Amino acid sequence: MSSFDVEYWREVLRGVSIPFNHPRRDSLLIREKVVEGFLEGYVVPQGLIAHGRGEAFDYLIGETTIEPAIEAMKAAVALLLISKHPVISVNGNVAALVAEHVVELAREVNALLEVNLFYRSKSRIEKIRDIFKRYGVEILGTDEAYECTIPELFSERRRVDCRGIYVADTVLVAVEDGDRTEALKKMGKNVIAIDLNPLSRTALTADITIVDNIVRAFPKMVEIARELKNKTRSELETIVNKFDNRSNIAKVLEHICNRLRDIASSLMNKP
Ligand code: PTJ
Fold it and tell me: Given the CA of residue 176, which atom of ligand 1 is nearest to it?
């Protein structure tokens, strides 16, 4: 079997440009970034599939940031700001789509960044490290000398940085499989998840679930962090304590149901 021909695919893609008036231009341009990450070798093929699943949920939500997501973002940013040792975990898809905004958010809330991969390889870790270096940040999770293990987790995600996720009080994960959130919860950590699927195990297990596309969520959280930074600790604690994740997810599901019901009735009423 011949090996995957990156140059062949680059050539194919170079020949196709997305028209400016294409109704789904924005979505297609986001896809290009994930595909580029794949051709560069740091997004895994499974990351392309995961992105497609995210797109499907985004379609149902209406490809917009809805009110429950804003509420969850405020609680998440408040929690990051009051945490002693917050860490933002990054993987291939996150690096491909929002590296710059992740760096901005980390700066605003004083969080560390750590690479943590399901399909872990040295070369992927180095490529992701280099992406963040371009934004002036040294990420954790790249040096085996500082490797600690998350108990009860059997995937490669169990390997974390002793200075980062291992000792973190709050961990933000995005575009993530379900096991790690459960394991991090068992370790007593606060988990914030960004996941377009409100029904995923990650979404249902996290303390704060932001059901939104990471391409909208991270820039919005940077804005929110700039506003909330001026609040007192007790004001931030009140925001966190008032937040109820299960009812927030229920509001997301209601939004999807109402939206689909409205679309169905408008289709039925059309001649
Ligand atoms: O880079 P690695 O090796 O760590 O691998 C990462 C993947 C994404 C392959 C791995 O974590 C995985 O398999 O994830 P899952 O189980 O497919 O879950 C990904 C979740 O993220 C799904 O619930 C998707 O709906 C959601 N998702 C996908 N794209 C986005 C998203 N959520 C927010 N924004 C997106 N752009």
Answer: 11
Q: How far is the CA of 267 from the centre of ligand 1 (A)?
A: 32
CATH architecture of 67-253: 3-Layer(aba) Sandwich (3.40)
Q: 90 exposed, middle or buried (CB, 10 Å; 0-12, 13-18, 19+)? A: buried
CB of residue 213 inside a 6 A radius of ligand 1:
yes
Looking at the predicted structure, is the pLDDT value of residue 1 above 60?
Answer: no
Report pLDDT digits (tens) over 202-245. 999 999 999 999 999 999 999 999 999 999 999 999 999 999 99
Percent of the chain residues past pLDDT 70, beyond the cut? 99
Residue 23 to residue 92: CA distance in whole angstroms: 27
- The DSSP code sequence of 217-261 is HHHHHHHHHHHHTTS-HHHHHHHHHH--HHHHHHHHHHHHHHHHH
pLDDT, tens digit, for every residue of 33-87?
A: 999 999 999 999 999 999 999 999 999 999 999 999 999 999 999 999 999 999 9
Domain ranges of the chain: 67-253
Nearest CA to ligand 1 atom 12: 177
Confidence check: pLDDT of 250 > 60: yes
C-alpha angle 35/191/54, rounded to 5°?
A: 30
Is pLDDT above 60 for 27?
Answer: yes
Q: Whose CA is nearest to atom 7 of ligand 1?
A: 47
> How many other CB atoms are found less than 10 A from the CB of residue 108?
19
Contact 202, 50 (CB under 8 A): no
Q: 79 and 170 in contact (C-beta within 8 Å)? A: yes
- For tokens 């985004």, what's the residue? 58
